[in-house]
């Protein structure tokens, strides 16, 4: 047997092994994808003056998720001065406003939760959100809009709200900038 012949047999054998490995890998990828067919995304948010709403709508388009605006009771005033008073009072008195939406949370694996930063923290209805809905085993990605406060001011509050609930709480992001939003979504595999 010539060296050339042995060499070509070895090469064909290696090619066969790699084809086999690749096709079985592909099979497991398909299986994994069908297992997570309930891997739907929910973009749920509250916005008083429209900034968080604009961000949520962009995020909905990019993730292909369902979009839900939270309905609160009592609703917040749109007048800025009145709003500041109501929001501050809720913090001081530990008031958790009601959320009226019925959301079929079992449809979703990932929940993007958007809110404006108020007084260096999430608004008090975010407490209600974590108590009202069953978020067990879900990934929750918070996003905020603010005048200047970074997302990180909200984190200690969110961590406390999620504690003991088996929620996969992500660090989240400030969504004022479309560019930074896209970067976060891409880096975290959230683009559709
Ligand atoms: C009651 C209240 C408190 C606020 N506190 C902060 C704050 O602590 N830091 C900040 O950067 N912006 C603060 N802002 C500004 C809002 O976070 C910002 O305008 C936000 O984008 C509004 O979102 P929206 O238009 O979706 O309601 C506050 C606004 C209000 C009404």
UniProtKB/TrEMBL annotation:
Keyword Calcium listed: no
Pfam families listed in its UniProt record: Flavodoxin_4
Ranges for domain Flavodoxin-like: 41-192
InterPro entries hit by this protein: Flavodoxin/NO_synth (IPR008254), Flavodoxin_CS (IPR001226), Flavoprotein-like_sf (IPR029039)
GO-annotated molecular function: electron transfer activity; FMN binding; oxidoreductase activity, acting on NAD(P)H
Domain of life of the source: Bacteria
Stated name of the protein: Flavodoxin-like domain-containing protein
Alphabetical UniProt keywords: Signal
Signal peptide location: 1-23
Organism listed in the record: Companilactobacillus alimentarius DSM 20249
The keyword Signal appears for this protein: yes
